[in-house]
Every structure is written in C-alpha cells, then in structure tokens.
Amino acid sequence: MHKSPDVSPRRLSDISPQLRQLKYLVVDEAIKEDLKSSRSVEDINSASIEERILRITGYYGYQPWSTSYKREDRTRENVVGTTDAQSAGAVGGAESGSNRRRLHCCIRVTIVQVQKALWGVAMVMCVCSSWAGSTQLAKLTFKQFDAPFTLTWFATTWNCLFFPLYYVGHLCKSPERQTPKQRFRECCRFFGDDGLTPKVFFTKVAPFGLLWILTNYLYLQALRKINTTDVSALFCCNKAFVFLLSWIVLRDRFMGVRIVAAILAIAGIVMMTYADGFHSHSVIGITLVVASASMSALYKVLFKMVLGSAKFGEAALFLSIVGSANFVFISFVPVILYFTHVEYIGSLEDIPWAYLCGVAALLFAFNVLVNFGIAITYPTLISLGIVLSVPVNAMVDLYTCEIHFNTVRLIAVFIICLGFLMLLLPEDWDQCIIQLSTKLRKRDDPAEGSGEAGTATGLNWRGRARTSMSTFAH
C-alpha cells in the first residue's frame, strides 16, 4: 500500500529501498561543525547505520544540528540526576556574567565621557585664549595701524585655508581617501543637486560673506572706541539675539528662561551705556558692538533657514569659498580706502605685519575651534569659552589701566554674562532639576518602619521607580 509522503515512517522497513542504495554514509563537513557543539562526531560515526540515518535525516524529530535544539535541552534529555542546585548555579553564573558585561559597558561609557570632558576643558581654554588674544592684539594693532577694514579683509582672506586643512584631516582619518577634486564635488552637493553654480553663489554665498565682513568690521570699529572688556561682554548678547530671531523667524520652541536671558542682555546694554555717562564716544562704540552682535545672529539664523545644517566638510568648503570671494571681489575696497586717505598707510614698512598676522591667525584658530570643536567635545563647553573671555579681557584691561570698574559696569558685565549662561541651558532643564530634586529628597528621607530592614528597602526602591516614571511622563 502506498504511503502518503506527509506520514513519517514508523519502521525501518518503510525506507528499505533507500537503505539498499546506501553502502557508505558520510557526515557532511558543515553538519560536523554543528555537531561539535552538541554531540561528538565520533559518537555519530560509531553508531549503527540505521541510527545514523535517523539522526541525520531528522526522522522522529531528532535534529541535533538544528539551532532550536539547545544545549540545555540535550543536557536534560541525556544527563540523568541533574539537581535543582546545579540549575540554580547555572542561572547564577549567567546573571553574574550579565552583571559583569554591564559593569564593563558602564566603565567604558564613563571613560569616554571623562575623555570628552577633558577635551572640553582644553577646548574652553583654547577658545577663551584665542578670542581674548585676538581682541587684545587687535586693540594693540590700531595704535600703529588704524585700518579696521583692511584688517578685516586680511583676516577674512585666511578663511581660504579651511578646506585644505579639512582635507588633510580627511586623508589622516578617513579609510576611503578621495582626491581633492572628488571631495570638493561631494561637498558641493550641500548647495544643491547642481553644485556651486553662479546663481547659487550670488544668492546663497555672497550674502553670508557680506554679513561675515560686517560682523568683523563693526567689532573692530568698536574696539577703536571703547575698551576690550565692554566689547567682549556686549558681543555675548548675540546669543540672545539668535534666540529672539529663531523664535520669530524659525518658529523655535518658546522658553521662558531664554526670554529672561534676552531681557537681561538688553538691561546689561543699557547699564553699560549708563556706566560711562552716555558720552557720545562710548555710545557710538556700544552701538557698533551691538550691531556686530546683531549681524552675527542674523548670519547664524539665515544660515540655518537657507542652508540648514552642514557637515564638517561642507562647512569647511563654505568658509573657504567666503574667504576666496572676499579676496577676489573685495580687494578693491582697501585700495580705494588707501587712496582716499580714509585708512591711510604711510608705506609698506610701516605696516605691523606681525600684529596683522597674529590677529588673523588667532581669529582663524577661533573659527576652527568653534566650527570643528564639536567633533571632540560638547557645544556648550565651546560657548563657555566665549563668555570666559570677558573676565580675561577685564584682567588685562585692569593691568594696563585702560578701564575703571565702577559698580554699574560690574553689574552690567555680570548681568550680560548671566544671560549668556542661561541661554546655554538645554530645553529640558526644568525636568532635569525636578528629577535631581526628587532623587535628593528620596535619599534624605529615612526609611519608614524599623521592624524589617528588607521590607523597608523594597518599598523605598519601588517609590523611587514610580517617581522617576511619573517625571518622565510629564
């Protein structure tokens, strides 16, 4: 009688035709590798031919090489006398292994965070020193070379070095090295599918180049009118202007703490003006530096609105294009200012090239740290370096006797710096404070009840878990 193929054979005689055709049976190499983890190959080879057929073909559900056939199942089937203590030991070993792996992971994460924090400290010092150094050196330069626009043009031209510097880093770090032309074309996709066309240049690059030059020129002009401490403090207001413009133009999230920070920045500007008695000289200088901060904020907001976020290579290419355009299209302006005696230079020997190159190099280093420093540390630490340049400039001005710190000026500087720091708070800062206060409150509260220590500890842990989840829910 013919059997249905769906019915498994119950006797060896049902597969006798296949048995007669087999003289030798060799276990496949792939199956041998799988069998090594479950059952020795020697055991299979020493078995009878019928048993080997049943095991290899999988009749009666015996598939020792199947991934679903676990080693624990084979142990329970073949080993007799396994006790509960042995099973508990295996579970305990698995838990200890899992805890060990978790501990290694936590240690690794902690080391990475410590390294990033150490890099952040170094970055804060570098940003602070480069920004304060460029400000002080520019102030000294104007005593011998009173040409702020020429200095702006000269420093902006150094931006051409951004993309070559990035490409050197690309060759050192990237596993897939590209030629400069290939890398240039890939980064040009940031401007659109057509790349950097004349239309894109005049609509998306040239306006930002003008804003860049205006920001630096107004900042240097302000240094000619007022001291470096007031200039560096007032320029920190650009963070508040960025928030206000982002809230109005980009429809960013409204945050009450940042509105308060913006109000503090405006109050600091008014108090800074009042500190000098509203003299025309100081009012012009304060107006210039506030205009510089406004141009900087407009540059950042428009860049985010028009071009979006840029990667490191795209940002380097963009800044290099700005520097190249400045050299090609703006070079005639210093020449006109020279012949019209607006920025008159006696001779080339009178130009303090060391000061000019120092200012340009420090500004270039500052821009490199600000744009590429987020690769190794947190952006908040980079912004912290900018506000720390205010006390550094104050110490230098106090040492050189170029500033008189009255009470109003000290309060104004403090208010502006406080507003800048408040703008660095994350969006969920209130939730973080609530979580921290909840944890501290739970830690300080004594455990209720002194009867059973174990029961009290368990209740305390459950209370903490519920509080944490309710905090995240809000």
TrEMBL record:
Any one annotated GO CC term: membrane
Record protein name field: EamA domain-containing protein
Entry superkingdom: Eukaryota
UniProt key word Membrane: yes
Domain EamA: 118-273
InterPro entries found in the cross-reference section: EamA_dom, EmrE-like, Solute_c_fam_35_mem_F3/F4
Record keywords: Membrane, Transmembrane, Transmembrane helix
Transmembrane segments: 117-138, 150-168, 201-219, 231-250, 257-275, 281-303, 315-339, 351-369, 376-396, 408-425
Keyword Transmembrane attached: yes
